Structure formats: C-alpha cells, structure tokens
Batch of 2 targets.
Target 1
Amino acid sequence: MFDRILAMLAKEFIELKRDRWAMVRLIAPLVIQLVIYGYAATFTVNHVSTAVLDLDNSQVSRALISHFVATGRFDIVDYPSSQAQFNRDINTGTAVAGIIIHAGFAKGFANGAGAPLEVAVDGTNSNTALIALGYVSQIVGVFEQERAPPAVGGGIGAAPRAVNISLQARPWFNEGLDDRWFFIPGVIGTLAMMQVISLTAFAVVREREMGTLEQIMVSPIGRVEFILGKTVPFFLIGFGDVALVTGLGALLFHIPFIGGPLVLMLGSTLFLLAAIGFGLLLSTQSRTQQQAFALNFFIVNPFFILSGFAFPIAAMPVALQWFTLINPLRYYIVILRAVFLKGVGVAVLWPDFLALFMLSAIMLVVSVLRFQKSLD
Amino acid sequence: MSSAGARIAITASGVSRHFGELAAVSGVDLSIARGEIFGLVGPDGAGKTTLMRMLAGVLRPDAGSITLDGIDVLADPEAVKPRLSYMPQRFGLYEDLTVAENIFFYAELFGGAPAERRARTAELLEAAGMAPFRRRLAGQLSGGMKQKLGLVCALIHQPSVLLLDEPTTGVDPVSRRDFWAILYNLRESGVTIMFSTAYMDEAERCSRLALMHAGKVRLCDTPARLKQAMPGVLLAVSAPDPRAVRAALAEAPGVLGVLLKGDHVNLRADSTARAGEFAAILGARGIAYTAITPEAPGIEDVFVALTGAQAAS
C-alpha cells in the first residue's frame, strides 16, 4: 500500500518539477494578491473630491471649509457659483461629495437659531458615501465645539447642555483600526482555499481527460491510496501558501502574530483537508477541465463572499447565514483573525475547530465514496 | 478452480449494457481458452469498446456474468486486476514523464520485486525497439511509439489475460510489426490475448474471432471456419471499371452481395455455375472485364455477407 502511495507522490512531484512554470503559477498569484490586498483594499476614505457651494460667503463659512480641507479626507475640486453648476459637478462625477453652505449660516450659527448646511453625496458607491457622510458629521461636530461660545446663544443663559458624555473609544486587538490587520489574515484563508480547491479538482479531472485515470482503475491501487497520493502534494502546497502569506504579511505589512503557531497549524490542517474534500467532490462531478473550471467558480466565489472576509455574516439574511455553516472559510477566518490579533487558543476557538473537523471529515468521506473505480 | 475452469481464461454470458435508449451490447456470450489470441471484429459503434470495458471491470453490465481466470469480475473486480491488463484505444501515459518513469510508475502500481521489474523493463523495451528512448518524455513520442509504450506499461506486471482495445489503430506498419511480435511471444508463454480491431487483415492473425455488429456477436469461430460459413460462393470480376460491373450485376439473378475492391468486384453468388451468366450480362451491356474467377473469401467478405455492413478494410 505504502509503495503505491509513494509511487503516486513521486510521479506528482516529477510532473511538478517538469512543469517549468508551476512555481510561478503557484507563487505569483499569492504574492500579487497579497500585495494588492495590503495596499489597495481599505475601507478608509481619503481625498474625496468635493464641490463646495458657499452661498453664505462669510468668515464662518470659510472657516468651516478650511476645516474640511485640513482633515485630508476631502479635496475641494470646485467652488461652483450656482446650484446648477453644483448639480453638474455631482452628475458628471467631478465631485463625489458636495457641500452647500446656505445663506444665513454665519448668522444662524452665532445666534443659535440653527445654521443651515446641506451635504450631498454620490450614493452609487454606497460604502464610500456612508463613510464620507460620517466624516462630514465628525468634522462639523468638531467645528461646532471649537467655534461655539461656551454658553450658546447671546449669553443670556440659553439652554445649556444637560449632560456631557465624553466617548473614549478604545478598539481592542486593533488599536489603530488598521484595515490591513483586518484583511491580511482573511487573505491567507481565501488564497489557500482558492488554490487548493482548484488544484485538486483540476489535477484529478486532468487524469480523467488524459485517460490515465482509466489506466489506474484497472490497476490494483485502492481509491484511498490514489486519493492520498493525488492530494498530499496539494496539502503541502496549501501549507506552503499559509506560511508564505503569513511571512509576507508580517514582513511587508507588520501584521502582528500574537497567537500560537501550533493553533494556526492545527486550524490550517483541518481547513486544507476540507478544501481538498471540496476539490475532490468537484472533480467527481466534472468530465472535463472546463466543467471543473465552471464548477470551481460556482463554489469558490460564494464561499469567499459568505465567509465574513469582508461582509459580516451577522448582517446576512438568515438563509444565507445557514449556508455559511458548510463554508470552511468561515471558520478558518475566525481562527486566523483570532490567532493573529487576539492570541487566543483552542480553549476559545473550539467550536470553529470542531466545525472544521466535522466538515473536513464529511467532505473527505463523501468524495472518497463518490470516487468510484469505474467509468459509469 | 476446476480443471475445465483452468483452461478457460475468459467467459461472458448474457452480457448486456445500455446507454439510455441505446443497447450498446446485448446478450453477448463468449468463452475464450487460455493461450488464445482472440479477435473482436466489427465496425465503429458495434459495441467492442463497451464489451472490453465490461470484461476489464471498469464498466458494470446491466445483465449477465463475466469471469476472468475463474474469478467473478462483477463480484470482485479488484481480485482480477493483478492478473489482468487492459489497454484502451488511447493508453493513458503521463506526458511529462519519461518512457522509463511511465513504466516505473505502472510497475509500482502492481508491485513486484525490483530486480525482476528491471529485467522485464529492459526485455520489453528491447522487444518494442524502444530501448534508445528510455529518457525521452512520453509526450514527445510518435503515435506508434506511444502505443508501444502503452503496451510495455500494460505488460510490465506479467498479466495472464490481456485485453487490447484497437491497439494498432493509427500505428505505422513497422511499429505494428513490433507489436504483433510481442503479442505472439506472449502467447508462447500462455498469456490469453483478446483484442478488438476494425482492420480485417489483423483479424486473420487470431486463433479465433467474433464478428460483432450492433451490440451482438453474430458469429464466433476460427478464421478458416468463418470463411466456410459464408453463405454462397465468391467470384472475383476483374475489370477496368469495377463500378460499372457492380452497377450491372448488383441486381442480377443469383447475386447475394457485391463488394467493390479497388481493381475488382467481389460477387457473392449462390453458385460458381453463375459465372457464365454474369459474363453474358456484361457482354450484352458492353462492359469490359478481364476475368471472372472463383475466390477464397476473406474475413471482410464474411463480415459483409453476415451484416450487410462494410467495415474498414
């Protein structure tokens, strides 16, 4: 039995070695995607192109505008002179955000009657719009506090602020709320999943296409032996992926790793087994590599979107939340973030480990059973 | 294993297989003795490959039973695998592996002592005329060489039953000769060989053959007896324009079948005595011919007589 698995392994590694571009194909996408995520993928909104229509044209209104500029969040690209021109700026995309300071702003601000300020954002990118709006209220809030006299109004004891709540925000585990800290651990799981599922599926389907699978079927090799020999290399590659992205993440982006390496290794092992199981299942459903490619897309994309990598699972409709239960990436991302940023171990993460264990066991058993040594 | 079982290598009884509506193989009975070279002849789509796959245990029949070396293939497909070698139309080679690595891989799948394997590899490569190509990648071999390498891989574990599905299709004459030399050698050592072919000239090489058509075995006997079994007699009409001869005689009384053969026409007639009548018809129509002579039927003539179909020649 052992000889046959070794023969399979030797064959796989010789094929890998002969394939001159294999290493490039395996490593380049990982590095490129890691770098892209590290540098480009961020929720932070900076340099929003902004149009300002200042109808008040007072000292106070100009001070407010300079506050906007000073934060660096907003770049003022135009000072339109009319409402029509303001609209045109937003319509043409010249500006993503627009601020209209209505006439009477300074007066209203001074006497406490209410200073009319209007903000328009281009909602086609709802995420940017929402975040930009948040910044606007922040900036306006700060401006209000700085400029308003201690006793609002003419000083004749107008309604004082009743309670003064001072918020001291302290985000745990990611004090600086650095988006990279959030993204990179998830990227490890995402990339390893994509690579391992597709490599496994394509490799088995390729044997079917080349006719070598038929040859293997008429040999005494057992299906477990065949599957082991076929998938152990991809398991090792998956482990290499995790190590490479972890190392690069720490080196390039200084992502902290405060948890235990053993916890990560255990989680990665279970996750990779589940991914191999899905890849094998895909291969049993595909006669050609094109079919495998189409199916792969069908599985990997939903897994990615429904993993909690970028979009919180708690905010999804209940039916989709149920679907995420069979998504190995969901559990692995929890483990990755916890190991990197929180430093907790199996004592806390056991539900995720248990889920991954069950998922990988089920997937492997099902795919081995579905992999028949016959052409039916 | 009984003594009768010891002499029979392959049996199939009532073997059938459908693909949807299509009956690819229906009710095939075969009994092949040890040491035979058994041919399965028929046109494309006759069901040869389906039957071969069922014998090899990679496709389950809908009905019927199959034994190989006395082992029930359906009940225990894994038990026959060490004794069996099945070579599909296109043998699955790893194109990124060299000739030697492919052989090594298939040898490892079957196990066996390394020293024995080395000796056998050398012997088979020599017989196939491939010894100088040990280090060449399988993907860089010619079609005939690939097929020979497939045979070497298929034989590396010393099977006692060899199933070859159209092994020489697309193989050049030199490689084909090597191929047959290896097969004859194997028979000497008692290996049972069953092969399918659409080439009628190869059919003449086997000890017995089955004519297969539309999923059924129509006749099964030695080539000589099959030829005798052909209804009627064969008359060869040599003529400068064989098509005109065929047109003139196809409907003539006493003609059972006509087969165009390059420079002559093979007429299957109910009696050799008809030769004079045919000559008269041709003379009356003014169609030139050089001779009308009785001819010994070939396998193709028998096949056409029995099925009405013309196989590849």
Note: The two ends of chain A are 26 Å apart (CA to CA).
Target 2
Amino acid sequence: MSTPAPTHAFDSGLTTPDFAACLAMGLRPLGLVQGFYCGQVSSWSSYSGYPVRQYPCACYEQEYHQTGWLGRVDDLDRAWTAAHATALERMLAEASQLGASGVVGVTTEMNHPTNENSCEVHLYGTAVVLDGVAPGRRPWSTQLAGQKLAKLVEIGFVPSSVAYARCTAMMAEGCNMEYYASGRSGTGNVVRPLQEAHELARSGAIDAARGLSQGASLYGVTMEVHESERYRSTYVTCSLRGSLVRRARRTVPTAAPTATVNLGS
Amino acid sequence: MSTPPTPLGGVQNEEADLRDLGRALAEAEQAPVLDARVTTSDLSLDEILLLHSVGLEPAEVVFGVGCVSILTGVWTWAVGAVDDARVAFHAALNLAKENIRSQVHRTGALGVVGVEVEVDMRPHACTVVITGTAVRAMSDEASHSHFRVKYHNAFLCDLSARDFVVLGNAGWYPLDLVAGASFVHAPRRSLGTAVGQATQNIELTNFTETLYAAREQAMGELQSRISQAGGTGLLDAKIVDRPMRFASHVVEFVVYGTAVRMLTAEHTHPQVSMVVPLDDAVRTFEATSLD
Amino acid sequence: MSNVPSDLPKDAGARLAELEHGLFTSDLSVNEFLLVKQVGFHPLGLVMGSSIYHIGLQKRSWGSSQELTTLTSAMYNARELAMNRMEEEADQLGADGVVGVRLDVNFYEWGHDSAEFIAVGTAVKSEDGQSYRNSLGKPFTSDLSGQDFWTLAQTGYMPQALVMGTCVYHIAHRGIGQAIGQIGQNGELSNFTQAMYDARELAMKRMQDEANNLGASGVVGMRLEEKSHQWGEHTIEFLSIGTAVAPRRGFDGTPPPRPTTIISFDN
C-alpha cells in the first residue's frame, strides 16, 4: 500500500503528527465537519423533579420535623443530551455528504451562550475516508486522531461514536438534628441524602452512558461533577464524555516498556 | 484476523505498524462485534497498553462516596485539635472505600488504579468522594502474560495505571489508600505577649509546638494505617496543609497516599537509560519514560 | 548516633521510632522512588521541620536603599530552624541524607507579622552500608528531584547540603524632583539597578560561603527567588538556594553514559 495522496484540497483540524499518522494508516482527510445546536433549556424554577427516596426524621419528636428527600431532576439532563445527539447527527450528516468513513479528532464544546436558560453544543472534527474501503452507512466518530487512534486499534478496538451522558440528582435537607451529632452517617436525614445524591448522580450518568453503548465500551472517559445549592436543596450533576468503541479483534499484550530518564527540562 | 498485531515501538517500523493498523480498521468496518465484556474507562490509551503488558485491562469506572456529620460548633469552640473533624474525615473515607470496594467486587475486578480523592470539609459534614478505574485480568485467552498477584481484598491505589505497572515491574504492589489528618486551632497569644514581641525576631514556640504536634499525630496515624493495611511503605504522599476555608484560625493537615509492599524476593531494578528529547515542550504522557 | 537531637518537639519521637522498624513513608513519585533505589538508597520516611517565627520590625527610610538586617536574619534563622529540625528527624532515623526537600513559607491570617517556615523531604539510607553523610557528619540535604539525584549520581557527584543565602533589601523610592525630571525619558534608573545588584550579590555570596564551609566543590540547581511577602513593593527578599555537591567517595571516574537522542511521536 502506498501513502494515499489527497485527491483534492482539504481542510483539517489535525496537528501535523496526527495528519502524518492518519495518512500512514490509510485514512485520507476529506474536510473539517461540524454540527451545531443551540436551544433553550427550562429554568430551574420549573424543574420536573421527582422523589426517589424519603428520609423521615430520626429524633424523638419526629412528627413535627421535616423529612429529607432525594430526587432526580431530569429535564436539564434530557435537554443537554438531546442537544448533543442533534449536534452529533448534524456533524455526521456533513461527513456522509463528503463520503467519509468516519470523523477523527472530534472536539466537543458545551456552553451557555446567553444565560442559564440557553444551551449550545458544538461538535467538530476531521472527516476521513479509509482508502479502498466503501464507507459504511453511518460514519463512526472519535475524539482520538493519529497516533492515539492507531493505539486504540492496537488495543483491539475500533471507534464507534463520541458519547455524552449526564445525570442530576437533588437532595433536600430534613430535620437538622444531625448537626448536633458527630461522626455519624446513614442514620439521619442530612448527610445520608447528600451522600446518596452524590452516588445517584454518578451512577445515573454511568448507566446513561451504558444505555447509549449497545454493547460497546466507553473509553477515555472524563467525568465532571458540579454541585450547587439552592434554598435548602443541593443539586449534584455528573456528566460523562468519552468515545464509544467496540472490540474488533483479540489483543496480544504489549511487551514490557523500557525505562528512560529524560534530560530535557 | 489476518495480520498479526505488532506492538507499537521503535521509530524504524512505525510506518509498517500504522499500515497494519489501518488495514485492521478497514476490516473491522464489516467485522461482527466480538463477544467481549463491556468496559468503561478513564485511562489513557498508553495506560491501557501498559496494563496489557502485565495481563490486566480496565473494567469499569467506579466510585465511592462517604458523607459523615460533624458536631456544630467544633470549629469555633474547640481548643487545640478538632478531634471531631478528624474522626468524621476517617469515617467518611472508610465509608467511601467500602462503597468503592463493593462496586469493584460486583465487577469481578482486582482493584482500582488512578484513584482520585476529593475531600470536602463543611462546617457540619465531611464528604469524601473517591473515583477510579477498576482493573481485571485480561479476557483474551490468547494473552500470554497473567497478572501474578492474588489479592484477597480489592486494592485501591491513587497511583496512575502507569505508575502501578512500573512499580509492579520492580516488585512492589499497592494495597490500600491510607490517610492521616489533623485539624488544629492556632493557639492565641495574650495581648501583653503580642505587644511585648512586636519588634522582636523570635520563634513563637507554642505555635510551632501546636502545629508540630498536630502534624506528627497525623503522620503517626498514617503510619499505623499503613501497617494495618499490611504495607511496608507509602509512596507519593499528598500533603494538604492550609488554613480551613471557613475557619481560618484552624489549620488543616491531611496526608494520604498508597500503602505498598514488596511481594517479590528482591527489588528489581529497571534498566534505565538517559534520553535527550528533541521535541519542543513535550507535555504529554510518555508511557515509557521515568519522568 | 553521634549527636542526639536537641530541640525536636517530643511528638516526633514515637512516630520516628516506628519508622526505624522498616516502614517507610515518602512523597517521592513512583519514578523518583525507583531512581533513588537505582542509585542505591532506600527511603526511610517523610521528615519535616517547622518553625513559626515572629518577624521583627525595622524602620525603612523612604529615600535610601539598604539591607534590612533584622528581616534578613529573621528569614534566615527561621529557615535554619526548620531545616535543622528536619535534619534532626533524619538523623534520628539514621539517615544518610534527605532528598526532594521543599522549603515553604506560610503566612496565616491569625499570625500577625509572623510566618511558618516548613522544610519537608524524604530521608534516605544507603543500601551498601557506607556512610554518605556530609563533611559535618550530618545527613546530606538536597532539593533535587529523584530524577536529578540519579543524573547527578551518574556524573560521580553526591549532594552535600541544601545551601542558601538570603537578603531582605529596601529599595529607595525616587525623590519627587527626580521622578519629574525623568518623565517622558527612556533611561536607566541607576539607583534601582545598583540596589538590586547589591541585594542579589549579598544573597549569592552568603550561599557560596555556606557551600565553602562544607568543603563542597560546587552548587547545582541554584535558583534565585525574589518575593515581597507581606512587606509592600519596595522591600524584597532575595533568596538564593541550591544543592552543594562534592565528588562521591570512591568514585572510579567512569564518565556518565551517552544519552540517546529521541523525538517522541506523541504530541
């Protein structure tokens, strides 16, 4: 196989080493493709939360005291995941038009363009075609490019799609008798809902990511957790980004590495 | 699979390797999905390749959360060490460790690498969150190397997967995440003393001793936890030493790291060679160097 | 043990006793640990020294450049105290030296005009049974990383001690007439130049004197830090710090291996 030469002018977001490595792998860059979605997300005041668990007060006058609770708030989660999915479809549609096999080096930008009630998702990457192979029905996409993509294939996986998942949990403090206790967990209705909100947000996001995967693995995960307080409630949001990949061949373990000491500063 | 995979390596065969991999990618377009266990991983690809070299692969992103209450008022009323805060910190860490281990157990993994520790001290509660990637023995029957160590209890280590592999090659293995902590009030100087000392260069010995005592206690606690975990050492200790965010007269000292033990008869020295990189500002992770 | 630690707070004792029984703690990274082992040393434990010091006052005269000797001696003595305590901890462990030393200064809200000086490092002991203590019979200290320590060892040198020199200097304000006279001109502010020059010279000279007293053959990894801490713009501490080195006893003169030149393909 000789190194494929680009047949027409192309633009690409690849760095020079990534460009070289893609060409060496037989991946010919076709052009920069992007997908964009800008929308409104419902404001916090109209959240559609639903309770998951309640924590009745543990102290002796319980009937007078507030109950703590744990809940899911999924309207924002749905808005953002839908925004990401739409932007991804738009990027893949552009890639298909170019006759691409896949999109490498996908960058994801997610912002609030104006205020908290707006969302913006921008995905862009470089569409590539595998020389001598007819592109599939739907191009694959990955955050990786060049050498790193080669390593992924070496591990035995091929890229499937970039993925985004998130989950928001909330907790409301109940009777705060726990403030007068020390070193306790799981007995009252302040720290236990807080702990379980943290757990719910993370496991919810991981489960949502798994729901997208259809048997694929999620690699290169970055997990971001954001906690905010409103009135006496705490909101914990966990979002996951990564590349879905599927196993395509068996892996032979790599040789043990050799150690070096770098004299560069 | 027609082309045998060649490990990425030296500069000379770089291009040949990449072509093979491109071909593999092309063939995989049509290939059926192999029956494999599903994986979630926050490791870099270099780290995954390194894990493969010792017969391991990533399994799942796992986490543990522990949240424990702290008595109201300890930050303002206590004198000397705020013991309630220390107790709460350890309780929260233990809870988080229990939770992450039960997830590891469910996935059938050996332990967790690259554990990230987040400690959030609040006036009335301490939250500890630990997150990492569980690793398991490679599923491929074709794999030749097998991970040599049998763990009874899942290991937790805040060393990266890369450090885990390099350390293992030298004969040392991680056991558990251990910590020591102290939260201590700075002693108060009486007005008379303060005025008397205003122009002098002088060591404030009671201040020094208070902080010394707190730190030594935390370090002592760390050591006894290393022994409890069966370790003989602790590497890459992380030290947090600062005034508390919400109570500036309280000094927080937290030290944590991974308890390790040598499990081979002797320490294996890696073959080290010097290299001079010609890259400008090599900033990325280099799987094979010791920097 | 030759010299019994004198002013180490009593709480350090029990913890150090435990470390003598084979357990070690260290803030060395895995790489550093392996390289320190490669040189032939085993970590013994994390050692630290601390001193909370009240820094006295000294009148500064607005228009003159001068060293503020009270502040200089405060900064020096406080660091010295912290370093000595760290060395004493190392000594108590029977260490040959301390690697990866970090010197920090913390200012706390509650400590008016006072600061905490901390020295932290990993005590190490040689595995060949030979002593690598410095000419004063104390454990060597060094702020070199594990990588630098290994590289230094390849050249046939061993660290002797962390040496430092400090100078707190007040730099004169310009007189109003002088400032007006210089408006709109490009020109050297020669009194500023001279003051900075003097202060740096003093700091470096003091560091070199420390190295000479040790009988060291040189100082590596020397750096000059300039900080105003909490004194305002015109008062600056010039801290010169480095690791004094001397040829390793019994070094056979083998030149260090030739390094390989590489270009990594990761970007």
Note: Residues 11-247 of chain C form a domain with the Translation Initiation Factor IF3 fold (CATH 3.30.110.70).
